Amino acid sequence: MVDAGTSDQAVEETPENSAVAAAMPLPNRVIARTIDRIGYACGGVSSVDPLEAQGNFKVTCRSGQSFQAKPVNGRYRFKRL
């Protein structure tokens, strides 16, 4: 038998657990190298923040430049903001 108090508690915790922030699937080192390869001096990634659109991220480099990382056909495309 399941205690009614236990099932109520489980229902309350479920919405909180489903709101987990998405993480960038690429390591910072790969992101910085990719941005350097497309012609911008990044110097290293200082932060990666999720954007409102599903799967999009804002990447801020140590050089002060910001880029949008957007998934296209299974790969991330970087665009300067």
Account of the 3D structure:
With 81 residues, this protein is α+β, with helices and mostly antiparallel strands. Helix content is 31%, strand content 30%. The chain has a 4-stranded antiparallel sheet, with helices on one face. The radius of gyration is 19 Å and the shape is globular.
Give the gist of this structure.
With 81 residues, the chain is α+β, with helices and mostly antiparallel strands.
Write the layout of secondary structure elements.
Elements: H1 4-18, H2 28-37, E1 45-50, E2 57-61, E3 66-72, E4 75-80
Antiparallel strand pairs: 1-2, 2-3, 3-4
Annotation keywords:
alpha+beta, about 80 residues
Number of extended strands: 4
Rg computed from alpha carbons, rounded to a whole number of angstroms = 19 Å
Secondary structure tally, helices: 2
- Portion of residues within helices: 25-40%
Written as H for each helix and E for each strand, in order along the chain, the element string is: HHEEEE
Q: End-to-end span in angstroms? A: 56 Å
Largest sheet: 4 strands, antiparallel
Shape category: globular
Structural class, from secondary structure content?
alpha+beta
Q: What integer is the average pLDDT?
A: 82
Order of strands across the main sheet: 1-2-3-4
Parts with pLDDT < 50 across at least 5 consecutive residues: 7-20
As for the number of domains, it is 1
User: In percent, how much strand structure appears in the residues?
Assistant: 25-35%
